Structures are given as structure tokens and as C-alpha cells.
Amino acid sequence: MSEKKSKKVTIDMNINGEKVETDILAADLLLDVIRNNLGLTGAKPGCLNGDCGACTVIINQKPMKSCLTLAIEVGDKEITTIEGLLHSPVQKAFVDEFAFQCGYCTPGFILNSHALLMNDPNPNKEKITEWLSSNICRCTGYKEIENAIQAVMTKTHNKNDSD
Amino acid sequence: MIPYDFRYYKPTSIKEAADLYQTITAEGGKPVYYSGGTEIITLSRLNLVYTDAVIDIKSIPECQEWGFHHEELIIGAALPLSFFDEKRDFPLLTETAREIADYTARNKITIGGNICGQIFYREGVLPFLLLDSQVLIAGESGVRRQSLKEVFIETLTLKDGEFLVQLTTKKIDLRLPALSVKKRQQWKTGYPLLTVASVKKDGLLRFAFSGVCPFPFRSEQMEVVLNDRKKPYEERVLDSFKYLPKPVLNDTEGSSEYRLFVLKNTIIDFLKKLEGDQRE
Ligand SMILES: Cc1cc2nc3c(=O)[nH]c(=O)nc-3n(C[C@H](O)[C@H](O)[C@H](O)COP(=O)(O)OP(=O)(O)OC[C@H]3O[C@@H](n4cnc5c(N)ncnc54)[C@H](O)[C@@H]3O)c2cc1C
Ligand code: FES
Ligand code: FES
């Protein structure tokens, strides 16, 4: 795809299971398009530098930082934001384990944790730490967040055992 | 927000990409090749990079290649660093790439972008420098294959309009005894204080470094001294420092004295482990 400088282009996006059409500039960040064009404000602007993970979304099953991605790059991909994550056990576990305080980082952490468990339902401690180190929280200790992931894993095992 | 707009192109062949670059330049434009795009985005936001056309190379099949061909492993330049976590054919690359940035960022940063980037650590190049890899470079006049050693002099020296398509490494070398260690001042992710990588081939150790000088390098002069088994470890390491390229970094990550102290201890650890053949 190519377009003239400073001219809006229309792209199709596949977001939270819906197809939407939106007008963007080629230089628009995915983060800005999700928030400003689509009104999905769960992904947060933090450092805008790839360091904090507050802007994390899931693209084709992988957690990605939407501040490091152009919207024009992802037209053909499946995107999930926190608004599209309905009834993920990770969400309830974050509440039960007190894994947030102010909540600014929480959508990013939940999406990262959800993607982790989707890719590997039984990650070891090293892998959990490796994935979670993509996100920064200024309020809680990271322990509660790890506990939330462990709680989901335990619940899934118990359920599988009793099935 | 990026403070300016640009045109976006997504070529599907090497020739299309190289031709686009020439055409845009001939029209007075300022194109850049775009791989993971993370550096272009973050530096553009700070007005440290300007372009009016990005040429995204991720849809070029050769840039996404991974596989063995004629006893060599071919690695496409647009493969994201997290890809090497999943593929374990090149353990030293897996080990080195895993320490770059953080997992989520590694889903976007590519090996070619890391090697060609302005941010000077370029840790991804270390395994390739150590194993005498070859590079496939494309440009206006077609594709050329060259030894990385000849073209990587502090940075990958490309002519205007050229881009890195692939890296190739001999299959026989992929499983040599090897180590890569990244030392950070703090935290588990992000830029290094320094990174040391080493392989043992034909009984001799090779060393490559990032974060010691403002560019990654392999020093064969240092290797000669470091392999002199007649001398004790510490003496060898201190003697080898005579051949360190200049300048040694002295910045917020660490003073040059501190870096040399950590470097000395890290190399001694490597000598103990690899000379003692603990990993063979
Ligand atoms: C959060 C974060 C943490 C980081 N931590 C580390 C770290 O620990 N260690 C480290 O070494 N680096 C680190 N980096 C830096 C990163 O590796 C570089 O900025 C790298 O350039 C990004 O790769 P990319 O694929 O996104 O590059 P891009 O943004 O696509 O490109 C970077 C530059 O390289 C050029 N380029 C890209 N591909 C090619 C090609 N195939 N041929 C020719 N030119 C090309 C582009 O034109 C551009 O000038 C980090 C970056 C981020 C965002
Ligand atoms: S806002 Fe994207 S990583 Fe901080
Ligand atoms: S809960 Fe406040 S930043 Fe994480």
C-alpha cells in the first residue's frame, strides 16, 4: 500500500472480533488510532518509548506495544484490546489477588498475562518473570501480579483434574 | 505521536524495495527501510530521525526466511528477536537475543533492525561476528554476498539504497561451545552495562563485545593474547586491554573504570568456563 504524504488513508482493522474501517495518516501510531479513532481507551500512553508496557495489546496472539507499532502495519492482523477481553480468568484473578492499585498499568499487565497463558497454559516461574518484565507498575509489588497468574493456573489444573 | 507524516510502502520483492528507494530518492524524497520500526518510531517522535517515505521490508519473503540450505542456516533480516526463542538451532543467537530489550519489544524488534540501528549496542550482531557469518545485501545493482567481517566496521557499512536481506552461518559452527553474558547495572531488561559473547573453535576462544565501546566489535588481537595459556587468566585479560578499541564508554550506565572492572571479571569467568571445557 502506498499513499501520498499527509493524506489520510482508509484502513480495515480487525479489532476485538469486529471489522472496522478508519481513516489514518501513515505515521499514526496504533496506540493513538485505537484510542482516538476507535474510542478504545484501555490501552494507555505511558513512556511512548517501548519501556513501560502500558500500551500493550495482543496482535495475532502475541503481546505487542502499540506505541511501537504503526496502525498501517496491522491492517491484516487480529488485534485484541482490554475492551475485547471478556470474562478472561486473568481479570478476576487480578481483582482477587489485589494485583493493582491505581490501575493505569493494569490493562497492559492483564493482556500480557492473558497472552502468556494463551500461548503456554503452564509457564514456569522463569517464563512468567520474563514475560512480565515487559511491563512496569509504579504502585503494587509485582508479587501480587505473579500470584494472579499462578491463581489462574491452579484453577485450570483443578478444573482439568475434576473433569 | 510522530510529528510529521510519511508515505508507507510495503514491497513484496527485493527488487521492488530497491527500485522504490531509488525512485523516491530521485524525486527528492528521503526514504528509509523499515523493519521492526521501533527505532524509526521512537527516534522520529523525538525528531531525531526524519523520513518522508518508509519502505517496510517485512513482506519480502527472503527477509522472513529461516532454514538450512547447503549446510548453512539462513536467517532473514526481518525476523523478530522473539522468533529465536522458539527456534533452537542456533543456541548462541537464542541466548544473546533473549537478553535484548524485553519479551514484548522482542516481538517487534528485528534482527536486521538491531544490527543496522543507530542505537549503538547492536547486541544481535555478536554471534554472527564470532562465527564468521556472511551477509546478503541488496541494492540498486542487485544482490551481493559478503563476509560480515568485511562490512561490519563498527556499523554495517551499506551504500545508499542498500539493505540487509539475510545472514548466513555455517551449520557446523552452530553448536560450538559458546557463552553470552549481559551485565546490567540494575533491572532484568534493557540496555547493557556490557555484553560479552564467546565461542570456542579449534581449541581457541573468540570474543565479541557490546557496551564496552560505542559500537560492538570482535578483536582478533585481543583473542591472541587471551588464548595464551602460558599466562594466568588475570594477566592475559589485562594485557588484552591494550588492544581494546577506543574510546571505552563512560556514561550513565557506568564509568569506564567500572566497565573495565566488570569486563575483566566477566572475561576471567569465560576463560574458566570455556577453557576448562565445562560446556563441551
Ligand atoms: C524497549 C527497547 C529496548 C531496547 N533494548 C535494547 C538492548 O537491550 N540491546 C540492544 O542492542 N538494543 C536495544 N534496543 C534497540 C533496538 O534493538 C534498535 O533500536 C533496533 O534498531 C530496533 O530494531 P527494529 O527492527 O525495530 O529497527 P527499525 O526501527 O526498523 O530500523 C532501525 C534502523 O535500521 C535501519 N534498518 C532496519 N532494517 C534494515 C535492513 N534490513 N537493512 C538496512 N537497514 C535497516 C532502518 O532504516 C533504521 O535506520 C531497544 C529498543 C527498544 C524499543
Ligand atoms: S507507552 Fe508503550 S511501552 Fe510505554
Ligand atoms: S497499579 Fe498503578 S501503575 Fe500499576
Biggest interface in this structure? Answer: A-B, 35 and 33 residues
Oligomerization state: heterodimer
Strand order of the largest sheet of chain A: 2-1-5-3-4
Physical arrangement of strands within the biggest beta sheet of chain B: 4-5-10-6-7
Radius of gyration of chain B: 19 Å
Beta-sheet strand percentage of chain B?
A: 25-35%
CATH first level of the largest domain in chain A: which class? Mainly Alpha
In short:
The complex is a heterodimer of chains A (163) and B (280). With 163 residues, chain A is an alpha+beta fold. Chain A is 36% helix and 15% strand.
Your description of this structure?
The complex is a heterodimer of chains A (163) and B (280). Chain A is of the alpha+beta class. Chain A folds into two domains: 8-84, Ubiquitin-like (UB roll) (Roll); 85-162, DNA polymerase, domain 1 (Orthogonal Bundle). In chain A, 36% of the residues lie in helices and 15% in strands. Chain A has helices at 30-37, 89-96, 106-119, 125-132, 142-162, and strands spanning 9-15, 18-24, 56-59, 62-65, 78-80. The N and C termini of chain A lie far apart (50 Å). Mean pLDDT of chain A is 93; it is low at 1-5. Chain B is an alpha+beta fold. Chain B folds into three domains: 7-57, Uridine Diphospho-n-acetylenolpyruvylglucosamine Reductase, domain 2 (2-Layer Sandwich), CATH 3.30.43; 65-173, Uridine Diphospho-n-acetylenolpyruvylglucosamine Reductase, domain 3; 176-275, Enolase-like, domain 1 (2-Layer Sandwich). In chain B, 31% of the residues lie in helices and 26% in strands. Chain B has eleven helices and 14 strands. Chain B has helices at residues 14-26, 38-45, 83-86, 91-98, 103-106, 111-116, 126-130, 148-151, 220-226, 233-240, 256-275, and strands at 7-9, 31-34, 53-56, 66-69, 72-76, 134-139, 142-147, 152-153, 155-156, 163-170, 178-183, 194-201, 204-213, 215-218. Chain B has a five-stranded antiparallel β-sheet. Chain B is globular and about 60 Å long. The mean pLDDT of chain B is 95. Chain A binds chain B through residues 1-6, 25-29, 32, 48-51, 53, 56, 62-65, 67-70, 72-73, 112, 129-131, 133-135, and chain B through 1-2, 4-10, 36-38, 41-42, 44-45, 52, 54, 56, 58, 82, 98, 101-105, 107-108, 187-190. The complex binds flavin-adenine dinucleotide and FE2/S2 (inorganic) cluster (2 copies). One FE2/S2 (inorganic) cluster binds next to loops of chain A.
